[in-house]
Specification:
Elements lengths: L11 H10 L21 E3 L3 E4 L5 E3 L30 E12 L2 E10 L3 E5 L9 E5 L5 E10 L2 E6 L14
Antiparallel strand pairs: 1-2, 2-3, 4-5, 4-7, 5-6, 6-9, 7-8, 8-9
């Protein structure tokens, strides 16, 4: 088995996510690469992918990384009042009760809203930004999170890895 080549320009979260993704076919520089489609080894190399010269199968380059595009700087120093620059839209979750595991001990957590990236709810203890907690959902699933802010009896949590939420309107039985 060949080693995975990691370069310094990739973000640490990218390197940590490789183990979670499983087996992926990639084109590796300085190695003999055979096409998964036809088995030949003639390639056209681009900036982010390599294409087989015989059958046209495309595979990503192992040495590339994904970087989110940044928003251009606004000319005005005042932010637009209706601008919501969140990555994931929030869903109201009033009345939903979860558990927070703080240093392994469960604490009730009344949820206000939730998104794929985090949650906001009533703060029951003195949580400080940067604290690591686990959120226990109704099915017993534990999701690691970090406290981003805590003020006015509320706490904002950011999930370490995004979660998948059911956004369907149909009621669940």
């Amino acid at each position: 088995m060949s080693d995975v080549m990691l370069f310094q320009r990739a973000a640490p979260s990218f390197a940590a996510g490789l183990a979670k993704r499983g087996h992926h076919i990639v084109y590796r520089a300085n190695e003999s690469n055979h096409c998964p489609g036809c088995g030949r080894s003639q390639w056209y190399i681009g900036r982010i992918s390599a294409e087989c010269g015989f059958c046209g199968t495309a595979v990503p380059l192992a040495e590339t990384y994904r970087q989110e595009a940044s928003l251009p700087k606004a000319r005005s120093t005042k932010p637009a009042p209706s601008a919501d620059l969140r990555r994931h839209p929030r869903m109201s979750a009033n009345g939903r009760k979860l558990q927070l595991l703080i240093d392994g001990s469960p604490t009730k957590f009344a949820l206000h809203n939730i998104s794929e990236g985090g949650a906001m709810g009533d703060s029951v203890t003195e949580l400080v930004p940067g604290a690591q907690v686990h959120v226990r959902f109704e099915g017993g699933i534990l999701v690691p999170a970090e406290v981003k802010w805590a003020e006015d009896g509320l706490v904002g949590l950011a999930f370490i890895n995004p979660v998948i939420l059911d956004r369907s309107k149909a009621p669940r039985n």
